Amino acid sequence: MYIDPHSHHSIVIIGGGFAGALTAIKLLDRTEVPLWITILEPREELGRGVAYSTTEAVHLVNGPASTFSLHPEEPDHLVHWLAGNASQYGWTPPADIAGSFPPRCLYGTYVRDELSRAIAGARAGSTFRHIRASATNLVSAPHKVRITTSAGQTLEADEVILALGVFQPPLSPREASVADHPAFAASPWDVAALDRVADAGEILLIGSSLSMVDAVASLEARGFRGRYQAISRRGQLIEVRRNAELERDFLAEGPLPTTARALLSVVKAERRALAAAAKDWQALPLAIRPYILPLWQKAGDAERSRFARHLRAFWDVTAHRAAPDSYRAVTDAIAEGRFQHQPARLLALKPAGGLIAATLKTRSGTHRRSFGGVIDCRGHQLHDWRCISDPFVRNLVESGEVSPHSTGFGIDATPEGDVISEEGRVHRNISAIGHPLRGVAWESSSITEQRTQAIALADRILSKLTPLALAAS
Q1: Where do the FAD-dependent urate hydroxylase HpyO/Asp monooxygenase CreE-like FAD/NAD(P)-binding domain residues begin and end (predicted)?
Q2: What domain range is 386 assigned to?
Q3: pTM for this one?
């Protein structure tokens, strides 16, 4: 079936998770001309994606509600929404709502409700559709883009936005050997798998960052009283988010570092200064965050790759800390002697009856231990578009409509998010937002960064659409 929007200016958003839904909200709220917006998203609800589809009440956003309003001009918007709506969705807000860390499923409901509000209040003549299908192919032209869907439709759009989110990597040969074992969970959000291992004596947690906290919080909520063995390549353990205050804008005091080594040197010096003054090191992310984009864009590909290889793990545990209420499950298990963490490499997993035998390489040698449960907590994010098996992504890469970014993170695009083809042509009517732009703007996975991108993208598209220009089109 072929669909032509005719008199409307048509925008197709491919992906209906947080980034796609938020972009639709900003377009509907800010437009002065009629828009014909379609979101392609197989999920029933828009705005949730992977992060906010969890149904576990102990999975919390990893920042206070005061920082996650969808509308930066109304910083208390989420706080007011929680005050008026949270109880009807089963969450009783604390007295300090602004400082609270609400459940992620509730934040997804907030995004969904805001999209419904924007649709209901859209400018006269605008239309909105959610097609529960995936894109399968895209063909660009100077003035139109044609998209085919898994439902057999063909859409023609004036603008296309790639809001594809994250992709799951295939199981490695290690995990594939136990994929069907009842004691194995390929993700910490597999509710059925968590239920199966809740009575285990000891659980191996592969990874030690935010996904690991989700797993422990979920198991403790199920009454798990066994032991945890968490492993990570570098031996780093995620920490709880504290209410540190910005101490000093130390990166503003000189030229920005141009190499990963120079950046690390400056940051380590500032951390030593904070320690000497008995100040909390968690002031560091507050000082660094405003400079992430200029630091990343100023660096060359070699330095970006060096950062991703050597410093990414350190940045992740520094910038992305855990919500206090969910992290309490970890600290309680540590206090009870039930949680251990060590640097180790996972070499093999093998079925061992009702258990799983894991071969681990640690600093003291190679060891083989059996566990009643094994949970992969590494986050399951595959960023290299050359390795993603999704048919649409594969077609985009093979056709040359997009070019995988040289860092191995996402796709090439202008700093504003206009997609660049394999031959170096800038698509003026195909844009990207969020995770596809990790190579262009490193922190494109965060709520605040995607909020900034959505506003800028909506304004850039709408700037082309004065009523006079629309009439002439």
Answers
A1: 12-166
A2: 2-59+103-168+382-472
A3: 0.91
